[in-house]
Design goal:
This protein is an alpha+beta fold and about 375 residues long. The chain contains 13 helices and 13 strands.
Length: about 375
């Protein structure tokens, strides 16, 4: 068997642990089934719905459901994204962006050196990027091996598994504290603390404001909890095999491109003050809003009288130069009038690629 096919087979049962992160936020009890996850429905911004040929990724043989989820994310399209490729044509050193868009397995880098025993960090290291790209082409961007492959080829996650002795093509797997333990955010922060071009290193906000100490995590917001079988295949006798149902995490990443998810980042409360009517907008995300220089969110606040007629209105835009900080509270105030009985809030999200801003909040609040 060639190195390519051996390593492709080694990806066999990745979902036994990639899909179940020890829950920091789900709150589900052992005897209570998880509610159906919200399925992200990103607004059309010109990007394809899914990565072409995603089913050719080695992991798809046993983890088709997880690969299908991942294929619709910007992680999957990190390399093939036309906007990224266009931007690279203008850069003098495009290779400087590859560390995040086609990264080497993270455990081979700084995080891996920090988490491995000292004895394993000494001595020369192989050219892991070249080795990884030989069987995980650039086309697949940020893929399964990026976050889960150990330097010795085993897969790391919240669960250990011994199925490599029972299931055809299965790989070695080990439990690791970076999946659900005190280092749960380290894998995401590895890339998302970087400021480059239109990208804001929002993970710095998460770190400096100590969101993890509040029990929050990147995964807790961006990977919805699920309950399912994560893998299927054949045993050594050629009989069908299905992994047991376990709690895990969806790999269909939730992002602000999905209006339902974006709405959850803002807390809203309307109240009377001594001088008028205030809409209190609270940042409920673990980082600034918006988190990209090409994004903006515009809130239109309207006061309605008892007859439902609009009697006052004001707009407020949040953008990279006027953002809402972590845990920040913003007051959008209407002129004082006792005739206002309800407050309407409409918020739209505008970013590069959409034909027109996308509405993500449209509701009335009682005073």
């Amino acid at each position: 068997m060639t190195q390519l096919s051996l390593k492709g087979a080694a990806l066999g049962v990745l979902g036994l642990f990639v899909a179940t992160v020890l829950t920091l936020t789900s709150g589900a009890q052992d005897d209570e089934p998880l509610p159906p996850p919200h399925i992200p429905a990103p607004a059309d911004d010109g990007r394809p719905d899914a990565l072409e040929n995603a089913d050719q990724l080695a992991c798809a043989g046993c983890h088709a459901t997880i690969v299908d989820e991942w294929a619709g994310t910007l992680h999957a399209m990190a390399w093939v994204d036309e906007r990224y490729q266009t931007a690279m044509q203008k850069k003098r050193k495009p290779a400087s962006c590859q560390g995040c868009h086609i990264p080497e397995p993270i455990f081979d880098g700084a995080i891996g050196r920090k988490l491995r025993p000292r004895a394993e960090t000494e001595g020369p290291r192989p050219d892991t990027r070249a080795e990884a790209l030989a069987w995980n082409p650039r086309h697949f961007g940020i893929s399964c091996v990026t976050c889960h492959q150990a330097p010795d080829g085993a897969m790391l996650g919240p669960y250990a598994s011994s199925t490599e002795d029972e299931i055809s093509g299965a790989h070695a797997s080990r439990q690791h504290e970076a999946f659900g333990g005190t280092l749960a955010n380290a894998l995401c922060i590895n890339c998302h603390r970087t400021n480059v071009g239109p990208v804001i290193g929002i993970a710095k906000d998460f770190e400096t404001t100590r969101q993890a100490e509040k029990g929050l995590s990147c995964v807790g917001c961006h990977m919805a909890p699920v309950e399912r079988s994560m893998a299927s295949g054949k045993d050594k006798e050629g009989k069908p095999w299905v992994a047991p149902v376990r709690e895990g995490r969806s790999h269909a990443l939730q992002t602000p491109r999905d209006p339902v998810f974006l709405a959850e980042a803002f807390g809203l409360d309307a109240r009377r003050s001594k001088v008028g009517i205030d809409l209190v907008v609270t940042n409920q995300a673990g980082h600034r809003l918006p988190g990209l220089r090409t994004r903006s969110m515009t809130f239109t606040v309207t006061g309605y009288n008892e007859a439902g007629e609009a009697v006052a209105q004001i707009e407020r835009e949040y953008a990279s130069d006027a953002y809402l900080p972590v845990d920040g509270v913003s007051l959008i105030s209407l002129e004082s009038t006792r005739t206002i009985h309800t407050v309407g809030v409409r918020a739209v999200h505008d970013w590069h690629g959409v034909d027109e801003p996308v509405t993500f909040i449209d509701e009335r609040l009682e005073l």
